[in-house]
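Listing S7. Sequence submitted for prediction.
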Amino acid sequence: MNNYDKIMFVSGDVYTVIISMMQKGWLGIKESSINRIIYLASVLFSFMFDDERNPFQEHYNFSITLSGPEDPTISAALTHLQSNEVVNIGDNGYFIANFNYKENFTGYSYYELKRKWIDDISYIIGLYGEGKIYDFVFRDPQYQNGVKTNTLVPLNLQKDNATVKFLNSFKEDFEKQVSINQKLTNRKYLELYFEYVFGKILRGDL
């Protein structure tokens, strides 16, 4: 894949994050938050859909920074979106979507799948709050291992990564305690799951 196509793939995700969060009441979003949300969406995809190929792993190479997971292609995508007036940046450094823009990312593979998934993740962030979700991101075992070892190796987005293994370690207990059925949407499953996770954090179990 050439660099332009990669930027376009990522631009679709970035635009989706900005639109989704603004529709849920945010007035704008920082670049670091965009990185964190896409990283979280990437890791949770492997957790939720262990029998499917993760569409994020083809386009992202997150590394560890002081502000959180970061992929330089996201910065390039924001520059691309700004130059085409798809998004604007306010005086406070927050990115704002141009709602008059007619999206043209639909021709890229996995776009619709990722759009729906990112919107589910945005819903969870809007429901439980930015602080709680980011607390979970920084508890991410894979991320913490990287911080401790000061590694520059890209964070693993595949289903064998430490975070997915960590989440799966108490998934069975969660599903025993909560009524899980085939009619449960992905969004509702995540809502109940994070309610369970945050309950364990508050009790000091995590």
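Caption to Listing S7: primary sequence and predicted structure tokens for the chain studied. The chain has a mean pLDDT of 84. Strands lie at 63-65, 68-70, 87-89, 95-97.
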